[in-house]
User: Which sequence fits this backbone?
């Protein structure tokens, strides 16, 4: 491993938890590592492409929008890889019935409609409902603050309910392993189970903190909307429409704050990130050692410029026996020592 200062590692790696695994994303590539039911670990590695092609996409605020879009795309691909690795049956009985009776084409259309309805439901719950419930308040500033508080309360209720599901509980444990391993890496410590186990599981650059920051920034954006577009004060639908159009600005500003928070530590930053860190008590749990092992594999695989492939193979093959990664689809790859993207 190359000798690097701890400061140069801050903000270098990010990640997310998936079903029975973790995705880690470095400057050049990202890797999803999943532990199968038989105890083996499989990986899926690709190069980061979008921001390398255009320097404009690396500008402040713009890079936050790009990063958010990439994260959404990665979420779908990594969750799909995890489902295939775990051999989870993705089609429900209703979906199978649709395919059998009406054919695959109609099933695809129905699933697309379902995704659109899901987005609309999220817009109603997190955008329209808080604005509607706070609409009776006369004072503009108080109304926007109440709207933001209601939005955060709905978000908290949602994650608290899903955290009761057994699969989500384990995913939150992997989330804790992700944070702990990143902390260990950023401190310049050797990536071992023992070192990672002692780290904190609450990280200021967490997606949970990002969501809360976006909601707080959204309060300020709401005040600006009211001042620039007075007509929105009389129409909740118009206000929500304008706020959706300005969502990229909210995302970009939230990203810059969370990025700065990940590289600095002062009273202001601690105050700004405190709500997100508190909520991570719900979204992260203490991981088991085998979950930490998966985090190490994902992190090292995502940083081939620092950790040679031989080092990762030693983790994948602790008994010295050859372990092949099964073909799980066109996106399943084996990370090479040079970090090349497999086709």
Assistant:
């Amino acid at each position: 491993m190359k000798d690097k200062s701890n400061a140069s590692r801050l903000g270098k790696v990010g990640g997310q938890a998936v079903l029975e695994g973790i995705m880690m994303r470095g400057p050049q590539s990202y890797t999803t590592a999943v532990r199968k039911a038989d105890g083996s670990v499989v990986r899926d590695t690709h190069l980061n492409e979008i921001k390398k092609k255009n320097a404009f996409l690396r500008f402040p605020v713009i890079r936050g929008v790009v990063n958010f879009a990439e994260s959404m795309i990665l979420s779908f691909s990594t969750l799909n890889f995890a489902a295939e690795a775990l051999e989870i049956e993705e089609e429900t009985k209703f979906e199978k019935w649709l395919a059998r009776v009406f054919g695959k084409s109609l099933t695809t259309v129905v699933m697309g409609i379902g995704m659109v309805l899901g987005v609309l439901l999220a817009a109603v719950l997190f955008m329209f409902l808080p604005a509607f419930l706070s609409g009776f308040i006369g004072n503009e500033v108080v109304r926007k603050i109440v709207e933001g508080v209601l939005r955060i309360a709905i978000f908290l209720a949602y994650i608290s309910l899903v955290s009761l599901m057994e699969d989500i509980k384990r995913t939150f444990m992997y989330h804790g392993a992700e944070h702990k391993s990143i902390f260990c890496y950023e401190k310049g410590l050797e990536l071992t189970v023992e070192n990672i186990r002692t780290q904190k599981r609450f990280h200021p650059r967490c997606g949970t903190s990002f969501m809360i920051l976006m909601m707080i920034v959204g309060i300020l954006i709401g005040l600006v909307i009211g001042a620039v577009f007075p007509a929105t004060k009389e129409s909740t639908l118009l206000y929500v429409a304008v706020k959706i159009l300005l969502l990229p600005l909210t995302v970009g500003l939230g990203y810059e704050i969370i990025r700065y928070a990940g590289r600095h530590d002062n009273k202001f930053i601690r105050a700004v990130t405190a709500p997100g860190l508190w909520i991570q008590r719900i979204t992260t749990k203490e991981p088991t050692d085998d979950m930490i092992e998966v985090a190490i594999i994902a992190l090292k695989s995502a940083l081939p410029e620092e950790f040679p492939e031989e080092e990762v193979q030693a983790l994948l093959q602790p008994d010295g026996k050859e372990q092949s990664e099964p073909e799980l689809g066109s996106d399943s790859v084996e990370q090479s020592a040079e970090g090349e993207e497999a086709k």
